[in-house]
Design brief:
The protein is of the alpha+beta class. The chain folds into two domains: 84 residues, Alpha-Beta Plaits, CATH 3.30.70.330; 42 residues, no CATH class. It has four helices and five strands, in the order H-E-H-E-E-H-E-E-H. The protein has a five-stranded antiparallel β-sheet with strand order 2-3-1-5-4.
Amino acid sequence: MAASDDKLLKKFSALLLENDMDEIIACRLRSTMTKAWSLEGNLKFVEAGKNTFLLVFELLVDKRKVWYGAPWSFNRNLFALNHFEANVSSNSWTFPHSEFWVQVNGIPLEYYSEKAALTLAAKLGEPIPVDSFNPSKWSKYI
């Protein structure tokens, strides 16, 4: 793999779904997310447009940690990620979907089953399998 290819692998395009983000919020975003991710290497936020950033990771392991730890939020807004594509203008970057958890409260106990959870999830989008399905660990929600 060429060195330039390696650099491309360490990048994300990112969008914060927040109205009217100013410089103070952008600074807080950088600081908060860097701390939340507890990265081993350095991270650079490059502003690429309105509420849009290029994230440049020093280490590929850090990029993977952030990608597989998603979804992320900041200031009660989704922080969407997508893999960076070379030779594509930041105006053309798209963020077509984001995986996230949904908590449903007030479900009657007789519906605490994998089948019911998948049926509910299908109403919201495409359900994503999880490592374990253990209703005994649930409380008031699935």
